[in-house]
Amino acid sequence: MSLLENPAGIAGLVTRELRTGERDGAPTRIAVARREYATTPDDLWNALTDPERIPRWFLPISGELRVGGRYALEGNASGTVEACDAPRRFALTWEMMGAPSWVTVTLAPTASGTELELVHEAHVPEEFWTVYGPGAVGIGWDGALMGLGLHVETGDTVTGEDAERLPFTDEGRAFYRAAADGWTDAAIAVGEDPDAMRAAGEGAYAFYTTAPAS
Fold first, then answer.
1. What is the CA radius of gyration of the chain?
2. Which alpha helices (DSSP H) does 50-100 contain, by range?
3. CB count in 10 Å sphere of residue 178
4. Are 118 and 107 in contact (CB under 8 A)?
5. Left (φ > 0), alpha (ψ -120 to 50) or beta: where does 156 sit?
6. Where do the structural domains in the chain lie, given as residue ranges?
7. Using CA atoms, how far apart are residues 2 and 16, in angstroms rounded to an integer?
8. What is the pLDDT of residues 157-191, one digit of tens each?
9. What is the DSSP letter of 211?
10. Which of 56, 113, 129, 65 lies closest to 91, judged by CA?
């Protein structure tokens, strides 16, 4: 059974924004994703920070989840927890393949639940941006926010096998198609070249949905 009954609709729950910034004298690109969840800030905070619960929607995690502590997500990123203000905000470094970037997650109560805002800031080589655009980072976070939503809504565990198989299903491709288009639109909205960003969006979509050669 598919994880997604309405893949484009689920992708449409995320609001996407792009910004530019600067760290250590070098320019950065900043991807911002927001989504509302029908649960309390305390419950959402627990889902995001409890090492026993994180693997139920994302990846197994190890390390010390405290300010100054190091963490590692199995087969993915590692980094340092830089700030924590429960149940409102945490910040951490996000290190992959030797390249550091920075992630901040903020929770705010709403009339019907809790809004999550995720901000990911990185130094992005221009050649990488040309090929993949904002979808390179953004689509990955769309997938994580989708998994979090399924877990919060049902209480079920999204298994690693489910997550790995999803991009190569019809439903998964529809989800990633909508996510790629959303990040493309966000880039065009802040003045990026439309043709270049559409081509980059196609590159990012293909990266996530093309099965590896057997």
1. 17
2. none
3. 18
4. no
5. beta
6. 7-208
7. 25
8. 987 788 889 999 999 999 999 999 999 999 999 99
9. P
10. 65
pLDDT, tens digit (0-9, with 9 covering 90-100), for 121-144: 999 999 999 999 999 899 999 999
What percent of the chain has pLDDT above 70? 98
Q: In the Cβ-directed half-sphere of 63, how many Cα atoms lie within 13 Å?
A: 19
- Per the CB < 8 A criterion, the answer to whether 139 and 183 are in contact is yes
**Single pTM value for the model:** 0.95
- CA-based nearest residue to 142, from 7, 14, 6: 14
Q: What is the CATH number of domain 7-208?
A: 3.30.530.20
Contacts of residue 213, defined as CB under 8 A and 6 or more positions apart, other chains included, come to none
The answer to whether 108 and 115 have CB atoms below 8 angstroms apart is: yes
Beta carbons of 70 and 87 less than 8 angstroms apart: no
Token couple for 4? 């997604």
Q: Which residue type occupies 121?
A: E
CA-to-CA distance for 108 and 116, rounded, in angstroms?
7
- Please, are residues 195 and 151 in contact by the beta-carbon 8 Å criterion? no
Task: Tell me if residue 15 falls in helix, strand or coil.
Answer: strand
Beta bridge partners of 158: none
Q: Is 192 helix (H, G, I), strand (E, B) or coil?
A: coil
